[in-house]
Structures are given as C-alpha cells and as structure tokens.
Amino acid sequence: AWWLKSPVFSSGSSEGDSPWSYLNSRGSSWVSLPGKTRQEILEARTLQPDDFEKLLAGVRHDWLFQRLENTGIFKPSQLHRAHTALLLKYSKKSELWTAQETAVYLGDYLTVKKKGRQRNAFWVHHLHQEETLGRYVGKDYKEQKGLWHHFTDVERQMTAQHYVTEFNKRLYEQNIPTQIFYIPSTILLILEDKTIKGCISVEPYILGEFVKLSNNTKVV
C-alpha cells in the first residue's frame, strides 16, 4: 500500500534506516519487557503480510490477544506529527476486529475543564477515507501501557453500544420516542513502516457539556 512508504511521514529518528533506530531515538516508543529480549519484542511488533491480510479481513478476540501479547509496553504516542496507522473497529454482533489502512495527524491536547485521571485527550485528524469529514478525539494513557489495555477499553465500549442499540430498538417498538446515544470508539494502531509504534483509542468529538456517569468499569 502507498502509505507504508510515503515520504510525508517522518521516521522520527536521525539514526538511519535500521529497524532499531526508532527504538533508540529520543522520541522512542520503546520500553523493555521483563523476560523478553529486544529482538523478540521487535519481531512481535513487526506485522507480516499474513497479519495484514487477517486484520483487514477481520479477526477474533483470541487471535488478536495472542498476536499482540508479546509486543511489550509503549510510551505515549508523539503528537504534532502525521502517522501511518491501522484503524481497527470492533463489532459485538460479529465479534470481529476489522482493520483498514489510514493516515492521521495527532494534534494538540484538548482544553477541558476537568482532565481525566488515567488518560490524556487530543485532536485526531484523519488525512483520508470517510473519517476525514468528522472531528475526532484521541485518548492515550498517561502511564506506559501495553496494547491490550486500549483494545479492552474499546471492546467494552462497543459491547455497551451494541446493547444500547438493542435497547433503542425495543423503545421504538413500544412507540417510546426516547433514544439513548452511546459514543462509538475505535483503535488506531500507529505504525512505522510495518512496525507497531504505539496505540490510541479514538472517538467522535461531540460538542456540548456532558456528565460522565461511568468510566466503563464502574459508576463515577
């Protein structure tokens, strides 16, 4: 695909084309994982053609967990720059994670009255495909986390959205005009060439003031 080699996207390193260069750079996403060598983690982070084929076609939770479990811990993604990425969406109905190729620009932090305790929020600008017309917010953990924390968050949120949709159908069948809206969430797997460099969750930006009732694990 064109975006894997596009000159628009900086490597984030001045140490040449070595696969280790971005791991050792000042803006590195590298954090060691006990019991694993750098080579093993780098191999786990490098997506093979077969991985791309499966992700684009759709994969189940178990396959994805097994594929990502040795990728280690990632530092927060670099803002104010463009990235190639895989956009992954989860469907509770099919129980599949499906990817599509994309390119994004990670912008400034959002100005909010009350900041989250666990994650930072910032603007995400899609540079092509249908998401281009929307406004999106990215969320990244303040502390270093593994990829699966992000995937679990989104899987939980999209499962909740599925049941909210089913509930709305029942309301409609009963001629009750009330409808509940649940914000969808997706994953952006940040890539450098074919290597995973980071991960964030992304939601549509909704204008207005809202009261947060839950953080997807408990009432707040």
TrEMBL record:
InterPro entries, alphabetized: a-kinase_dom, ALPK1, Kinase-like_dom_sf
Pfam families: Alpha_kinase
Highest taxon in the source lineage: Eukaryota
Boundaries of every Alpha-type protein kinase domain copy: 89-220
Entry keywords, A to Z: Kinase, Serine/threonine-protein kinase, Transferase
A molecular function GO annotation: ATP binding
PANTHER family: ALPHA-PROTEIN KINASE 1
Designated name of the protein: Alpha-protein kinase 1 isoform 1
Species this protein is from: Macaca mulatta
